Amino acid sequence: MGITVELVGERSQEVEAEAGCYSDLLSPFDVSKHEVSIFVDGRPVPEDEQIDPSVDHVRVLRLIKGG
């Protein structure tokens, strides 16, 4: 199952994902599940939630840390 993962403002990539969690889709990107929010159909999903088999696109938003 291929899912298009869009790292907002950076790039998109097709990721092969069998049964797994949304955090598994982050492996091709240089991000940690702790520094992003994952969105499906405009709603945030927990990174440890199982991937819905009907999903073909997710958006990943990198969180900005202030200092």
UniProtKB/TrEMBL annotation:
It comes from Halovenus aranensis. InterPro entries: SAM_domain_containing, SAMP2, SAMP2_halobacteria. Gene3D superfamilies: 4.10.410.50. This is Sulfur carrier protein. It comes from the Archaea.
